[in-house]
Amino acid sequence: MDRRIAVCFAILTLIxxxxxxxxxQIDELVSKKHIITTKSPFxxxxxxxxxxxxxxxxxxxxxxxAMTHASFSEENNRALSILGTSIIETSVxxxxxxxxxxxxxxxxxxxxxxxxNVESSCAVDGMRLGLHKIVRVSHxxxxxxPAIVCGAFRAIFAAVALDSGKSDDASKVFWNVxxxxxxxxxxx
Length: 188
Ligand SMILES: *[C@@H]1O[C@H](CO)[C@@H](O)[C@H](O)[C@H]1NC(C)=O
Ligand SMILES: *[C@@H]1O[C@H](CO)[C@@H](O)[C@H](O)[C@H]1NC(C)=O
Hints:
Blueprint: H1 2-37, H2 41-52, H3 60-66, H4 78-99, H5 105-116, H6 118-128, H7 131-134, H8 146-164, H9 167-177, H10 183-187
Helix pairs in contact: 3-8, 4-5, 4-8, 4-9, 6-8, 8-9
């Protein structure tokens, strides 16, 4: 008799363990799903941006930083935007010289200036990517100002170069997103 009770107990305990662990697994699934569905708008915007520029970051922190203005955080895109400017200048001079070894320094300087100009090409390219809606700024800063859009735009190329280890990759991304009806079309 005692043995039967013991066996019953053992079976009951087993059932309880099995059902508890099943419940845990369901809980885990639910919480995982919760993490996926509660991704921040900023993370979602960075994912979309990577698709737009056709480059997937290994180190997403680099893109996060590129999309962070100095008014928002000490970890911002200021220094990245300096490297980004160099990359744009290099990309433009390289391409123009490759097309025409006899290009005048005056013309070359002009096309470089046009590609980097805050008020024109740079802000236009940045706005087209929707950077003014992505870049993190302090609550009293207007993210649509050309300087902020440009800073973020330039910083992207530094982020790509650092991520891939090749500034050539950043150059490719630049030509991919740079206005196709821009100065190349006008010059040739
Ligand atoms: C996107 O990048 C991949 C790999 O770098 C390349 O093969 C493809 O042609 C690119 N697509 C566009 C639209 O630039
Ligand atoms: C933000 O800046 C843009 C461009 O300079 C301007 O058109 C817009 O009116 C500004 N918005 C606010 C709320 O000041």
